[in-house]
Here is the input.
Amino acid sequence: MRTDFILLGTRINIASRSRRRWLVALVYAAFALLILAWCAFDLQSTWSWILFCAFAILARFLGGRSYDNGLLPAFEGGDERERYRRYRAGYIAYEWLDLAFFPALIALAVKINPHLVPANPAVHIFLDRLPIGLMIAVGILYYTLPQCILLWTEPDIEAEQ
Amino acid sequence: MKSELVLFGKHINMASRSRRRRLVVVFYGVLGALLVASWLMGSHIGGGFITIEFVLFVGPILGGYFARVSGISGGRGLVEPFEAQKVLKYPKSATILRPATLLRPVVDDDPELRRDERSLRRRDYAHYVSHGYLRTVLSVAFILEFLNHSPLHEDLENMGMSTGSVDRVVYFLLQIGYILCMTLPQCILLWTEPDMEMEQA
Here is the structure.
């Protein structure tokens, strides 16, 4: 795991666990705002491309999976301890994914049910946009949660050394 | 993992890997047939509940997430519960105003509920692999729903896919994804664990 990264020319140290936790919280807060903005304004606006670009940049930034130059090394290699940490993170992420999946499924079931058409236009728009908002959240969690769990749980790197 | 399955009071030996693999194939075979049936019935008007009911009824024989659901196996599934430690209570200091305290409940320290290191690693590995398999279903569902809400939805309509039918396909894919999410780790363990007799020898 890398202990620092460069943002707009400034080197930011993330060797301590508390700093990494702040980073994870900021990343998810930013995504929650982006999804809300996208769903609140216009689904066909440039917000969708901003969201996509932000997601692609985040995936590269976090690393893991097949990305090599992010905060985490690519998931293919590593020693035995790293592999077990990765599997453990996969297990924890899986449980959260399961919880996130269900609301998206229910929201879509409500949306496509012909017997449940709300009379209020505002509720109708909300029910129309809720499934895609939740699915984007599931997609972001699917791709980023194992990496974020590793960033969240790994101890302070200096202390370990 | 248990070497014996109790089904309607009948004991079935599942120690050999080939038998467990057959069980996995039959489980997903029946599930696949039900998915097709639910699609034909109209999954958007309730047909989809057949598959959910099947998973809730038959899933307990797999164990794992369903280990404490007493379905046809009487709460004795093949794979041991993924979370073996039973939560007893939250400490007095726990409060909803400090969510972190709710993440550390007092757990039952009964030695029989503890899991050995190997089975924990196998469990984690099964989830890791399963997580990878979900990618395809999730990606296709996500891309379709995204296109449905983008300016490209007119192209989809020109291809004969109305907004409603795309939603229906996405719902179907999410259903498959959710069922896989709940059953795949157990099936990977059943599929990959070696014959139990051989291991004991």
Q: What stands out?
A: The two ends of chain B are 17 Å apart (CA to CA).
